[in-house]
Amino acid sequence: MILTDTHTHLYSEAFDEDRQLVIERAVAEGIERFFIPAIDSTYTKAMLELETNNPERIFLMMGLHPTHVKENYLNELQHVEEMLAKRKFYAVGEIGIDLYWDKSFLKEQQEAFRFQIQLAKKYNLPIVIHCRDAFDEVFEVLEREKGEGLFGIFHCFTGTLEQAKKAMSYNMKLGIGGVVTFKNGKIDRFLNQVPIENIVLETDSPYLAPTPYRGKRNESAYLVNILQRLSEVYRMDEKVIARITTENSKQIFGI
Ligand SMILES: [Zn+2]
C-alpha cells in the first residue's frame, strides 16, 4: 500500500526537532510520497534542504500563499517566477484567496492568484488552491482562466456538494484531509457522491490534525486516520482507496 500526502508543510518550524523521525513514522505507515506546498520566499531555503535530505520522497511546489499576499507581494511573485524558471517544481501552490483572516488585500490576492495560474499554464503544471471564506471569489478567477492548461487540486476542500461539482468542472480534484474525520466537518455526508477518481489525500500538517489528534500537531503518519474514515464514507477497502488516490496524485503531478 503506497499512500501519498499531497499537502504537507514538512519544512515548518513545528518539525524542527524531529523532522526525519516524522518522515520515518509516515513511511512506516505506507506514506511514501510527500508533496510540499510553498508559502512565501522566507521558506524556500528550508524547502530545498528538505528535498536534498529526502530526494526520492519529497516533491516541491512553488507559489505565494494568499494569506502572505501583503505590501511586498510583487517582490514575492517575482521570486516565484524566478524559481519556476530556474528548476523543476511539481505544482504552483498553494495559491488562491483567503478572506477569513484579512480582507484588505482582496484585490492583490485576486491578481496574485491569476498571475500564478498563468505561470502554471506556462510550465504545464497543476495548481494547488487554498480557498477560505472565498468560494465565489476563487470561482470567479477560475471562470476567467478555465479551459486548456487549467488543472490541479482544490486543497482542504470543505464546501458543499454543489461547490465540489463546480470545482471539478474546472478540472480540479478535491484534497481531503482531517476535516472528513470531524464530527461537524459536514463533507463526510455527501463525499460518497463524488467519484473517488476525483479525490486525493492530504494532511496539511502541521495543521488540521484528524480525530483523535484534533488540536494537536498534525503529521503525515495520520493520513491513515483520514484513509480509515474515507473507507467508511465510500464503503471501500482501504487498500483500494490508497491505490486509486495515489494514482490520482500521479495523474496530477506527473510523478
Ligand atoms: Zn497548506
Structure, described:
The chain has 255 residues and is of the alpha/beta class. It has one domain (3-253): Metal-dependent hydrolases (TIM Barrel, Alpha-Beta Barrel), CATH 3.20.20. The chain has 8 helices and 8 strands. It has helices spanning 19-28, 44-53, 73-86, 106-122, 135-145, 161-169, 223-234, 238-253, and strands spanning 3-5, 31-36, 58-60, 92-98, 127-132, 152-154, 172-176, 199-201. A 5-stranded parallel β-sheet has the order 4-5-6-7-8, with helices on both faces. Strands 1-2-3 form a 3-stranded parallel β-sheet, with helices on both faces. The radius of gyration is 17 Å and the shape is globular. The structure holds zinc ion. Zinc ion binds at residues 7, 9, 37, 94, 204.
Could you give a quick summary of the protein structure above?
This protein is an alpha/beta fold.
CA radius of gyration is 17 Å
Strand order of the largest sheet: 4-5-6-7-8
Q: What's the CATH C level? A: Alpha Beta
Largest sheet: 5 strands, parallel
Number of helices: 8
Q: Could you tell me the strand content as a percent range?
A: 5-15%
The whole-number mean of residue pLDDT values reads: 97
Bound molecules: zinc ion
Unreliable stretches covering 5 or more consecutive residues: none
Proportion in helices: 25-40%
Query: Outline, from the CA principal axes?
Result: globular
